[in-house]
């Protein structure tokens, strides 16, 4: 059974509030302090997936592909790679620098996946090929740029640079199969341009359509009062301030868009309440009617968000052409 089919999910209504994963507070404190001591704009990189995957030859690259990023002034590359591929850093021979963070446990040979999550959350940007790092960073709500082959997993869809699953992810696609150099040259140029106006320590701004921008502001506003961990709360406030500044600088809102934003904020708050209900039931191992009602409320809130987001894009204009098959009316009407 396909739940998206049952619920009538379409691309505009894919539930995508991020972050929906949060690192362990203790790990975040450990890695956050370590990365704060590093000078520069910290960019985490991952270049290889599971070599036994049947499509790995299409998605993985050598670490040397990231050389153009290392030449961007002020950038420090931080290896997120684990396993045998990390040995590639040892044989770079001084061609460029990639920082290897030591295992938290000296007796361990590599990080745990929770460590990786905490490191990612402490970075300014993640640049990766199609690996689990891309999905983890997207779920954590971290600005992430993904290099993609012409042969891609279905989740990345086709002919678009954004990602409906993760609003903070941007896709850089090959124009010709197997040619990675133009992809990483473009990433380096984009990063150079961004850093001229976006200082280290603030992260890379994420290009969003108006509806996505306002949706993200509403999500962070709803989450701000619910975020207890001090470092996470500080990041929420910093990102919220940056997005509000982007809205105020470049978005001409209207009375109708203001009304829709208020509805969007109320929808996010209702969704947060529903998520809290799901968590309470899960902690109590109560999967009866209360759990079902909370889960349905969360799903309805996500669907409503998608409708409002689409309406805002119709009102204020989208950043680029809509994907094929997604008409301006695909989001449906929004009741006053």
UniProtKB/TrEMBL annotation:
Top-level taxon: Bacteria
Name of the protein in question: Flp pilus assembly protein TadD
Organism: Fimbriiglobus ruber
SUPFAM superfamilies: UDP-Glycosyltransferase/glycogen phosphorylase
Classification lineage: Bacteria, Pseudomonadati, Planctomycetota, Planctomycetia, Gemmatales
């Amino acid at each position: 059974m396909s739940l998206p089919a049952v619920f009538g999910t379409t691309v505009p209504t894919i539930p995508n509030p991020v972050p929906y994963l949060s690192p362990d507070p203790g790990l975040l404190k450990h890695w956050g302090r370590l990365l704060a001591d590093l000078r520069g704009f910290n960019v985490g990189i991952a270049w290889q997936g599971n070599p036994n995957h049947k499509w790995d030859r299409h998605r993985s690259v050598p670490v040397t592909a990231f050389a153009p990023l290392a030449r961007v002034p002020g950038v420090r590359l931080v290896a997120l790679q684990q396993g045998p591929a990390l040995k590639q850093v040892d044989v770079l021979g001084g061609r460029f620098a990639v920082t290897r963070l030591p295992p938290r446990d000296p007796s361990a040979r590599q990080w745990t996946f929770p460590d990786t999550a905490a490191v990612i959350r402490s970075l300014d940007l993640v640049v990766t090929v199609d690996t689990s790092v891309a999905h983890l960073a997207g779920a954590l709500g971290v600005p992430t740029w993904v290099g993609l082959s012409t042969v891609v997993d279905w989740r990345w869809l086709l002919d678009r640079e954004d990602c409906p699953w993760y609003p903070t992810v941007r896709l850089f696609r090959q124009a010709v199969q197997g040619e990675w150099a133009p992809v990483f040259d473009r990433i380096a140029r984009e990063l150079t341009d961004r850093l001229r106006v976006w200082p280290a320590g603030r992260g890379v701004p994420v290009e969003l359509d108006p509806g996505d921008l306002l949706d993200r502001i509403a999500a962070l506003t709803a989450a701000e009062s619910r975020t207890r961990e001090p470092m996470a709360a500080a990041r929420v406030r910093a990102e919220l301030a940056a997005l509000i500044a982007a809205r105020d600088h470049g978005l001409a809102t209207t009375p109708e868009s203001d009304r829709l934003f208020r509805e969007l904020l109320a929808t996010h708050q209702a969704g947060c309440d529903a998520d809290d209900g799901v968590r309470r039931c899960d902690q109590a191992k109560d999967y009866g009617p209360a759990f079902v009602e909370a889960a349905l409320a969360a799903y309805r809130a996500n669907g409503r968000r998608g409708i409002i987001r689409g309406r805002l894009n119709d009102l204020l204009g989208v950043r680029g052409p809509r994907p094929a098959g997604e008409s301006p009316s695909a989001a449906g009407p929004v009741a006053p």
